[in-house]
Amino acid sequence: MVIRSLELQNFRNYASLAMEFDEGINILFGDNAQGKTNILEALYLTSTTKSHRASKDREMIRIGQEEAHIRLFLSQNDVDHRMDLHLKQSKAKGAAIDGVPVRRSGDLVGFLKVVFFSPEDLSIIKNGPGERRRFLDMELCQLDKVYLNQLANYNRALNQRNNLLKQIGQDPSLKETLELWEEQLISYGTQIMRGRASFLQELAPIVSEIHAQLSGGKEELKLLYEPNVSADRYREELFYSRDRDIYLKTTHVGPHRDDMVFEINGSDARRFGSQGQQRTAALSLKMAEIEIVRRRTGQKPILLLDDVLSELDRSRQTYLLSGISGTQVIMTCTGLEEFVENRVRVNRVFEVIEGQVMPRSEEETLVKGE
Description:
six-stranded antiparallel sheet, 24% strand, alpha/beta
């Protein structure tokens, strides 16, 4: 899978942009706040229908405009495809693949498979469980359409139950309707827990192996699933939690409160791990994400790196850069020093200045690779 080109209209700070990518390593460099990350955001949005930093579509539309348009061309199994995404100020986004409208934006998820890695991901270990659930859901939704549908249905039922919990204080008779939504929560939630458990069981040994290589065999990393409630007690715990939920007006039991635990040499890395250990574990997780996509789909995903190298020490830079051969990489940075120092061959370089993207010639890249 390779992204050939990208076109933007009225997206973030780009009135109009057209650029072509190499199937190897592509670098977007320049000072901060010039628009580098906006390009990665557009690619990630097309893959997942969600931004990694904006909660509403209108936040990504250029100021003063009503719509934004993203178009990209990609090759998958030697077949060329076109993907279009329209963002609108007051309407739901529209999408199309090869000119055919996509009925639901969720149907777009997973057609283009990407792994996104930003400095914020280096904190996934020490951040709250919401970040780790987001990682699980985004990865599983790209790989499994059934899981995507289960998660959407679960969230819909959860929102309905929470709305009811808020209304019961004014109308106690509504309590009788809770069971309808609880049955859906139990049905879809149980499937979600099983999907997460199966995925982490597959992912854990890959993460452990990569972490052992990064730590020189000195540390053992275990990745463990920590469900909020076991599947066989879900119905019982949800029923017992009703009065508390009504009082606090929110649902306290279910996979929306799941977590996963990283243990380094038997200790919880979130509580007892050093910053270096936490970053190594996070890097191991992202590298494992690339491998599990390859195993499940037979293709390597496109790797999007947003100014990550500057946050890693030399040894971790070397490991990351040596592990992405054969993968299309589109990454941002403020300079090219890391590539010079690590003797990495860069295939295409773009300089980004105030929303203008300018290709640099090979002589200008200052890269020492063969």
